[in-house]
Amino acid sequence: MKLKITFNSPVVLCFIIICFVATILNYITMGASNTLLFSTYHSALTNPMTYVRFITYIFGHADISHFAGNAMYILLLGPMLEEKYGSKMLIIIMGITAVITALINYVLFPNIALCGASGIVFAFILLTSFTGFKQGEIPLTFILVAIVFIGQQIVEGITIQDNVSNLSHIIGGIIGTVIGYVLNKSK
């Protein structure tokens, strides 16, 4: 019996590879690559890089621990979602999550930079809970995940002062919920 390694989830695997390379670049450039490409922050709307960073910030991570935390969830949930919804739809979901989160952060929090794929992780978490969705039903797993997830983000947002954007987690979760509902309702 021969076993072979397969490239089973091209979008997820390519995304993780890009994130890993961006994280290594951040170390090599002592943070300059994150500032230039892999963080989104309040910069002039006349600067074309402002719009580029609305997408590319999802590839950057503050350090290897930040990368590993997000990568584990994406590698765990992403292949199932890519198989269910397809590669093209997964790219669309990731792009929508990135842009909406960046725009909301740009407007509401001009002094806070975003870096990393946490919004996508939380979109995937809530989107995954819709995999068993049937018309006219709401999965109990979705309700429990939503309660625990939103509750945790609110508590942490109020009580913990760190560099984690709880709002991007909540936005990602809302996007995953809406997309999961819409995609599964139409089936």
Strand share of the residues? under 5%
Mean pLDDT across every amino acid position: 88
Number of separate helices: 8
Q: What's the architecture, going by CATH?
A: Up-down Bundle
Q: What does the main sheet amount to?
A: none
Helical content stands at 55-70%
Shape: globular
Rg, Å, rounded: 17 Å
Overall structural class, as computed from helix and strand content, comes to: mainly alpha
C-alpha end-to-end distance? 39 Å
Unreliable sequence segments: none
What is the string of helix and strand elements? HHHHHHHH
CATH topology descriptor: Rhomboid-like fold
Highest-level CATH class = Mainly Alpha
Q: What's the number of extended β-strand segments?
A: 0
Going by CATH, what is the homologous superfamily?
Answer: Rhomboid-like
The structural domain count equals: 1
Notes on the protein architecture:
The protein is an all-alpha fold. The chain has a single domain (10-185), classed as Rhomboid-like fold, CATH 1.20.1540.10. Helix content is 68%, strand content 0%. It is built from 8 helices and no strands. Helix 1 packs antiparallel against helix 4 and helix 4 (64-85) crosses helix 5. The longest helix has 22 residues, at 64-85.
